Amino acid sequence: MQELEEQIKDLIIEALNLEDVTAADIDTDAPLFVEGLGLDSIDALELGLAIQKRYGIVMGHSQQVREHFMSVRSLAAFVAETRQR
How far is residue 6's CA from residue 3's CA, in Å, rounded to a whole number? Predict the structure, then answer.
């Protein structure tokens, strides 16, 4: 799971063009939005598209998707679970 978390951190940096951020700067358990990394709704759309493209996952539009995007750890768990299906 740790490898997937690192891949997602790299994907966040790449997809959102975060020039002054490294994977080590992103706390795996910190919130991605508002607090923590401070992403916004536009970032969420871009990150969702990048996740779909990289991992072939269909996100949907439910409240659960919001929960999956709470942190890198929750996003990695969602990706791992979805890929196993």
Answer: 5
Tens of each residue's pLDDT in the chain, 85 residues: 899 999 999 999 999 999 999 999 999 999 998 888 889 989 988 999 999 999 998 877 666 778 888 999 999 999 998 887 7
Q: Which residues contact 22 (CB under 8 A, 6 or more apart)?
A: 13
Top-level class of domain 2-84: mainly alpha
Give the predicted TM-score (pTM) of the model: 0.90
The domain ranges of the chain are 2-84
> Mutual orientation of helices 2-15 and 41-55 as an angle, nearest 10°?
120
